[in-house]
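Student: I would love a firmer grasp of how sequence relates to backbone shape in proteins. I am handing you a single protein, as its sequence and its fold in token form. I am told such tokens are a discrete way to write the fold. I hope you can help me see how the letters and the tokens relate. Take your time, and here it is.
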Amino acid sequence: AVRSSPLVDDIFRSLCHQCSRREWHGKIGACAAISHLVPLMPASYLKQHQVTIMKAVLNVLKDGMYEYSIPLQEDAQKALSLVLKHANSNTEQTAEPGPERQEALVLLAT
């Protein structure tokens, strides 16, 4: 597993920024990188940053104007699924979801 650090924060910040850029190749690369990094990250890190990452990936899914939109959407769906799975795969099951999970659920509902 990768430990959180300022470098990891910068990497995720850069990947999320690429998801909002206009160029499709940056979006594909960012979604692929997120998909590869998420399983390596601790759940606590992902839980803390899941809303930011989800917003970026959802931005890719909403932008379907490219001729490469099918592979791009598949990469984005995979990244989103991995973020949701790994950020919320804690062993301590609570009756009430935490604020990060509630915010993520609200984001998905909108």
The longest helix spans residues 43-62. The chain has a mean pLDDT of 83. The helical segments are 6-19, 24-37, 43-62, 69-87, 99-109. DSSP finds five helices and no strands in the chain.
